[in-house]
Amino acid sequence: MNNGIPGPVSWTSGGLALEEFASCLIEKAVRPRHRPHEYRQIRRRAYDSRVSGAFLAGENWNIDHVVVGPGGIFAIETKTKSKRKAPPGVKEHEVGYDGVILEFPWGQNRDFVEQARRNAKGLSGFLGKATGNKVWVNPVLVLPGWYVAPASPPQTPEVRAMPETALVKYLRGQPPSLSDQQIEQIAFQIDQKCRDVSF
């Protein structure tokens, strides 16, 4: 999703990073045609997450955001989809998700999930080459303004899909897997290919 102009790299970091990130996503959901304030640089070293702008994964291809923190590395793809009148008996604000297919009120979508999966795989490959270590990247699909209904019985899909309001809780709920040193190393590598965006 290409939604910015190349510019200097900036990470939002410290204890408020995820809240600011989520607030920007919420504003995008509420006012999708307006550009909210750019991220403020928080100059605070903390054992917390770093949130980047768009990661240039290739020509005409970027990852909307990358989060690096104690709980791991997350490639986040954000997709907005306008709501329309649903058929009788179908909730207009709800999308079903079985780990492969998104069931919107008026039809299915596989592309969003597959794109998020490819993004994470591509970032994992880049970081593996850059660091010399095997790196796992978690794919996340954010659907602002939608309630994501899980499959029954519940599953743990490779690509996690959620509304913007659930993002901070999900990211902070991951068990620690990266040290401060690893976070710094990975953030440095991403800096080389990252760019600021306001969306």
Structural write-up:
This protein has helices at residues 17-30, 111-131, 167-172, 180-191; strands spanning 12-13, 50-51, 55-58, 61-63, 65-69, 72-78, 94-97, 102-104, 107-109, 137-142, 147-150, 160-162. It is an alpha/beta fold and 199 residues long. It has one domain (12-191).
Number of helices: 4
H and E order: EHEEEEEEEEHEEEHH
* Main sheet record: 6 strands, mixed
Rg of Cα set: 17 Å
Into which percent range does the helicity of residues fall? 25-40%
Strand order of the largest sheet: 1-2-5-6-10-12
Q: Could you name the ranges where pLDDT drops below 50 across 5 or more consecutive residues?
A: 1-11, 29-47, 195-199
Shape, please? elongated
Structural class: alpha/beta
SS strand fraction: 15-25%
How is this structure best summarized?
With 199 residues, the protein is an alpha/beta fold.
Keywords:
199 residues, 4-stranded mixed sheet, 4 helices, 23% strand, elongated, disordered N terminus
Topology (elements, then pairings):
Layout: E1 12-13, H1 17-30, E2 50-51, E3 55-58, E4 61-63, E5 65-69, E6 72-78, E7 94-97, E8 102-104, E9 107-109, H2 111-131, E10 137-142, E11 147-150, E12 160-162, H3 167-172, H4 180-191
